[in-house]
Design brief:
Layout lengths: L2 H26 L6 H6 L5 H11 L5 H13 L13 H36 L4 H15 L2 H15 L15 H35 L2 H8 L4 H31 L1 H6 L5 H11 L2 H29 L7
Helix pairs in contact: 1-13, 5-6, 5-8, 5-10, 5-13, 6-8, 7-8, 8-10, 9-10, 10-13, 12-13
Length: about 325
C-alpha cells in the first residue's frame, strides 16, 4: 500500500474539514431570521432583543464569532443550543447513531437488491430478467422517498399490522423492537438506493464481461462461476466500491425526509428542527458533523481501492 499517498490523502481530508468549518459557519449566517428574536418571541421589546444579542455575541464581527466557534470546536465544544440550552455536542452524539444505523441498513438492503439484479442483468442482456431489472431501476429512481415510505406504512403497518409505523427503540432496550422499527425506514432507503446501484453494477459488469481475459478464461474451460466470481466481479469491484461510497455519502446526508416520515430520531430531524428554530449553534454543529463524515467516507473509499487491487498506483 502506498503510504505516501495515504498520508497525502489524510492531510488533504483534514484541510477539507477545516474548509468545511469556514463554509458552514458563514453560509449559515445567511439564514434569514434573528435567533434572539426567535428565542424571546415576537412580543419581545427591542431592548431585550438587543441585550440578548449582546450576551450571545451575535453583535461581534463574523470573523470574531468564527474564531470563537472554531476555538470551541478544536476543544470538542460546539457550544450550546440557543433554544434548549443543551450542549450541541451531546445532542449530536445522541442522534448520530440512529442516522448511521439507518444509512448502513439502507445501504445493505440496496446491495442485497442491486448485486444479484445487476450481475444477472449483465449476464443476460436484453432478456426478460434484464428488462425487469431495468424497469425496477427506472421506477425506483423516479419514486420520491417520502411517498414510498408512506406506501410502506399503509401496507405493512395500517393494513397488515405487522410493523410499527413510527418511532425508534434503542437496541440496548429491546433488540426485537429495534429491528421492528428499523425495517420500514431501511426498506424505504434501500429500495431507492438499490435501484440506483443496479444500473451502475450492470454497466460495470457488462464492461468487464466484454474484455479479452474473460473470453480467455472461458476458453480455458473454467466454470462460469469461476469466471464471474474470480475474474469479472473482482475486476468490477473498483467501480462497485465507488458507487457504494457515493451512495453511503448520499444516504448519510439525505435521510432527513425518511427520518421525518417515520419519526426517526436521527441527525436529519435534528438539523431540520435547527433550521426552523434558527438555532445557529445546533445547525452549525449538525452540518459540520455530516460534512465531516462525508469527507472521511470518501477517504475510506480511496483507501479500499488498494485492498481490492494492490497494483494500483496514484500520481
Amino acid at each position: 500500500m502506498n503510504i505516501r499517498y495515504i498520508i497525502q490523502r489524510l492531510f488533504s481530508t483534514i484541510f477539507v474539514v477545516f474548509g468545511i468549518t469556514f463554509v458552514v459557519f458563514f453560509i449559515i449566517q445567511l439564514v434569514p431570521g434573528d435567533p434572539a428574536r426567535v428565542i424571546l418571541g415576537v412580543a419581545a421589546s427591542p431592548e431585550n432583543v438587543a441585550a440578548l444579542r449582546e450576551r450571545l455575541g451575535l453583535n461581534d464581527p463574523m470573523l470574531v464569532q468564527y474564531g470563537h466557534w472554531l476555538g470551541g470546536l478544536l476543544q470538542g465544544d460546539l457550544g450550546d443550543s440557543l433554544v434548549t440550552g443543551q450542549s450541541v455536542s451531546r445532542q449530536i452524539m445522541q442522534r448520530l447513531p440512529a442516522t448511521v444505523t439507518l444509512a448502513l441498513a439502507g445501504l445493505l438492503v440496496g446491495l442485497a437488491i442491486a448485486l444479484p439484479a445487476g450481475i444477472l442483468s449483465a449476464l443476460k442482456p436484453h432478456s426478460l430478467l434484464d428488462i425487469t431489472a431495468s424497469l425496477f431501476s427506472q421506477i425506483g429512481v423516479s419514486i420520491p422517498d417520502f411517498w414510498l415510505g408512506i406506501l410502506l406504512i399503509l401496507f405493512f403497518s395500517l393494513t397488515l399490522g405487522w410493523l410499527p409505523s413510527q418511532g425508534h427503540t434503542p437496541f440496548s432496550e429491546s433488540p426485537p423492537g429495534w429491528l421492528a422499527h428499523l425495517i420500514l425506514p431501511a426498506l424505504t432507503v434501500g429500495i431507492i438506493s438499490g435501484s440506483i446501484q443496479t444500473r451502475f453494477i450492470r454497466s460495470a459488469m457488462l464492461e468487464v464481461l466484454n474484455q479479452d481475459y474473460i473470453r480467455t478464461a472461458r476458453a480455458k474451460g473454467l466454470t462460469e462461476r469461476s469466471v464471474i466470481g474470480g475474474h469479472a466481479l473482482r475486476n468490477a469491484l473498483i467501480t462497485i466500491v465507488t458507487i457504494i461510497g457515493l451512495q453511503l455519502t448520499a444516504l448519510l446526508s439525505a435521510v432527513v425526509v425518511v427520518e421525518v416520515v417515520f419519526s426517526w430520531p436521527g441527525l436529519g430531524r435534528l438539523t431540520l428542527n435547527a433550521v426552523l428554530d434558527r438555532d445557529y449553534p445546533l445547525l452549525q454543529g449538525a452540518v459540520f458533523t455530516i460534512a465531516t463524515m462525508l469527507a472521511f467516507v470518501n477517504l475510506g473509499t480511496d483507501l479500499i481501492y488498494f485492498l481490492i487491487d494492490p497494483r494500483l498506483e496514484y500520481a
